[in-house]
């Protein structure tokens, strides 16, 4: 937190759009580019950007005034009153019990906190301020809808970055960021917030929409409630969150790129090209399925999905070819994952774009393991500077039945060749980003030619990568297509509930 924009500008490069977002009434955290050699590096190591904000309470202003008198102009490191993935503490007793060992002092007021809310977070891309987390200052503001049903809808959202959505007439109200519903405290926070919002809005939900996944906590909550039930595929909901925001009707193509989502075939989706026509939708293209040894462990140990892709690209001799890439990984671990892939034990198949980014961040030499979500891809994005090689890595796209299958094997082989030739992570990042974006543009344009559709929606957590969002958007627009993406709600799972609600309102069904 900086006392003012002038102080922030000494540490960061702030565009007019970012300055406007920082000064807005909602006072969000805004992701901005750090200046070279900035003292902010320890706060966001390895990343080109940092999240900054300005004072938004009298207490903040008084604190900076005292610091100025003491000769320190800021900034201050600010964080929410909670451990990661837990709800914010809202009473002195909670702070003492949960955070006492971290806090030297507790400043509190005798006015009770009735509703917890994290800071809202966003970034500027394509000239627009876009939300990555919708919470303080923006909730319970409504998203205006183009249609409604006589009965209201409760859309339960996703299990990660959860927020839910209640509709009332032609208004959709998303809850503040709830978080990861695998934590019991967040599930209680969800139920508490749902009760509060129903009472505040006087909303009655006759239709309950939830994720297709049979075991999600949010879906279990929805299934237990009274009302007509509507199960919604995760990536269809991502795309429909864009359609709801922009009042799209008729036909459009959707690119939903993220880490994970339960597919209609029971597999883990994440690189979906969807076609919406009338009230139906279908999957038209995707990455070729690849095994994910250890399942979710692949999001933490980035070498796991890399092994799966290397094995597919180089065959059984992959270890001999790629041995230098694994210099820092215990041989026993690599051998265990190799055996898992041979037997298929605990190797669910996926088309996840997020895991592809994880794998390439390992192949590029960025990192082998992540200590927080999407760390490898975010660091790889930070290495992209738009310069370097003009040619991106190539992907093989071929028809297979009713779908186009996208094989990353040529890109994997080219990236390994570059790495073994001594090319650095920045060079490989440049070629990878350009290759993925060219593949996305070419595939979407091909579907547009085949269907005659001219509108394209972009959503999913991968589109919070500014390089990907801007390159894909610009490429599609050069092809004469009209591009829409999330602005009012996050492109990540925090916006899924709006898409679920719109799915129920419009009566969509898979072909």
General description of the model:
This protein has helices spanning 5-9, 16-23, 58-69, 92-99, 184-201, 217-224, 234-246, 303-314, 318-322, 331-343, 353-363, 375-383, 409-420, 425-451, 466-478, 496-506; strands at residues 12-13, 29-34, 49-52, 121-125, 128-133, 142-144, 152-155, 165-168, 171-174, 205-211, 228-232, 252-262, 268-277, 280-287, 290-291, 349-350, 396-400, 403-407, 455-459, 482-485, 509-510. The protein is α/β, with parallel strands linked by helices and 511 residues long. It folds into three domains: 5-117, no CATH class; 133-250 and 491-510, Nucleotidyltransferase, domain 5; 290-484, ATPase, nucleotide binding domain (Nucleotidyltransferase, domain 5). Strands 12, 13, 14, 17, 18, 19, 20 and 21 form an eight-stranded mixed β-sheet that branches. A six-stranded mixed β-sheet has the order 6-9-8-7-10-11, sandwiched between helices. Strands 1, 2, 3, 4 and 5 form a five-stranded mixed β-sheet that branches. A hairpin with a 2-residue loop joins strand 13 and strand 14. The radius of gyration is 23 Å and the shape is globular. The protein starts with a helix and ends with a strand. 48% of the residues are buried.
